[in-house]
Amino acid sequence: MNLRHILCLAMAATLTLTGCLSLDYNANSNDVRVVEVPVYIEDTGHAHEHDTAVDTSPPEDTAIEEEVLYAVWVDSADQPMAFNGVDIIWIIDSSGSMGSYQTQVELGIEAMMNALPIDVDWRLVIISADPEVAAQNEWSTFPGYLTPFDTLADAQDMFNESNVGSDEEGFDAFKYYVEQNPHASQWMRDDTALLVVFVSDEAEQSDDIRTADEFVTYAQGVRNDLFIASIVNLNPAMSLCNSNASNEGEEYIDAANLVGGTVIDICEEDWSAGVQDAASQVEVLEFIDLTYVPDPASIIVYYDAVEVTEGGEWEYDASLNRVNFLVLPGEGVHVEIGYVYAI
What we know:
The chain is α/β, with parallel strands linked by helices. The protein folds into two domains: 3-79 and 285-342, no CATH class; 86-280, 3-Layer(aba) Sandwich (Rossmann fold), CATH 3.40.50.410. Helices cover 26% and strands 26% of the residues. The protein has nine helices and 16 strands. It has helices at 3-14, 102-115, 131-136, 152-162, 170-180, 182-187, 212-222, 250-258, 272-280, and strands at residues 17-18, 22-23, 35-42, 52-53, 64-78, 86-92, 122-128, 193-200, 226-232, 262-265, 287-289, 300-303, 306-308, 314-317, 322-325, 334-342. The strands form four sheets. A six-stranded antiparallel β-sheet has the order 4-3-5-16-12-13, covered by helices on one side.
């Protein structure tokens, strides 16, 4: 029994796969699950002559020479809808407790600026998570937003000018900025996508927009093509530094998950990888880098739960550990790549 069959059986048992022909794997982009599959080796007395079986217990009359465990992994992503550019708003908690994160904030913004290709027409502003400040704040340097031609020094200047206020109300800050700040209507466009990046070390505390569902509904009314990244405290059980459950950015996390966005632990010393993932949400999906090195024969690729053929529509590049799409997935298509790797 080959590893592709092992993959099918394991995914059928754990990821609700129907006969290995359709995949009902309800996951957000890059959300993955793992299952360990024990493979029992027939003891033939020859070190390299093995037959494998997929049973979770050894067959009768078969001695276990060794147990080889395989993990089934699914990498996934969504093909963005076509749009003319992207407007990006970083909404940053400016309370005193955020002082220790200033370097990460600046480097994170730089990482996003570098990750967005020049051929994506993007504009970026930084505002405070204090709604009253967000309603009035405006960068003093023309044109009032960052572009692909600006530098880290420009981003630092904008961050320093917006880094005032004490309220931790990211949802309301977005609303107040869009509705009350006259500068917003001067640079935000009606025909582009919108990427909102929340940065806070405390829980969301807005008065007007109280839940993630309400925020997503409101923000999609501003721009239908909505992407969200949340750089926040995770639950203490998962966080690298947060020991206080009341500081968890649960609503920010939920908002990102509702649109298949990106969640980054604010405790990470380097946010660049996560911020680059957030930036990739607005790029055309031409390939997916795999999380683990697969057995190439086990790779299965699905576009919206329909298996697509190797060679005609995709190919595996072992040198980069990447699946390249020879036929690009259509707008909004959910791509899933399942495979087996030995552990």
